[in-house]
Amino acid sequence: MSQIHIVVDSIGQVPAEMLAMHPNLHIVSLKVRIGDQEWQENEISTKELFQISKDKKLHPMTSQPALGDFIEVCKPLIAAGKEIIIITVSGGLSGTVEGARSVAKMLDEEHIHVLDSATASVGMVQMAKAALEMASSGCNAKEIVATVEVMAKATHTFLIPDTLEYLYKGGRIGGAAALFGSILQIRPLLHLVDGKIAVIDKVRTKQRVINRMLDELQKYQTLEYIGIGQIDVPEEGEALAARIKGMYPNTPILPARIGSVLGAHLGPGLLGLVFQEKI
Fold first, then answer.
1. pLDDT (tens digit, 9 = 90+) per residue, 34-87?
2. How far is the C-alpha of 24 from the C-alpha of 81, rounded, in Å?
3. CA 157 to each of CA 38, 62, 192, 203, 229: distance values in angstroms, whole numbers, following the listed order
4. In what order do the strands lie in the sheet containing 112-116?
5. What is the rounded CA–CA span in Å between residue 29 and residue 13?
6. Domains defined along the chain, listed by start
7. Cβ-based neighbour number of residue 110 at 10 Å
């Protein structure tokens, strides 16, 4: 078994086949709840989440992993003399990274390395893949950490929410902005800056904001991959992928899976991109 183990939180949406291939890859789950019902992130789909929320007339809430969830994974590995690299969702979106850092201090700060991906979804998966490949080729933890940190700085995230309701109820934007946007059919183009949601532009109609996002994308010509995310609008995701393939014929186009925790904050109908500049 590998000396170096990789831990990723569930917002990464690591594919099951990838998890099965790597015994040194582990997942720690965030949770989502509606009223008195609570689920591990991958126990409920975004479609099911929104339907239950609609039926109960309650907004979904989320929570980061408990410290005990990280301890359960990390403590036996440290006892066995392993090194651990934890890759979390952006610290601007969740307190997960701070929880992981607390556990590192409690257990063994020298051998538990916590990395803020500054992104989500496929961006985290690509960082985990790189870490696993480096570990299998004999690289040490410090070398892997240095590479993943560079990847995080080179990774960008764009978001087009279909509704501002979920960002508002999740505390990401103010009520006036949500009301104004809804009345005027304003579609914001958002991105992550230092891991936090910020506005690039505000545009009327979804098609125009998609065009605006692609204009922003074209500022980056040499890309390692482009991940395309959608929440319950697969046809729109496919149409976006087709356009991007025409723009970047030699760049891998990957699915950016979005689970129920991000869904609870971004809402149905979202389109998004996660991409990395070549390093």
1. 999 999 999 999 999 999 999 999 999 999 999 999 999 999 999 999 999 999
2. 13
3. 28, 21, 6, 18, 10
4. 25-28, 4-9, 83-88, 112-116
5. 10
6. 4-30+65-153 (3.40.50.10170), 155-277 (3.30.1180.10)
7. 10
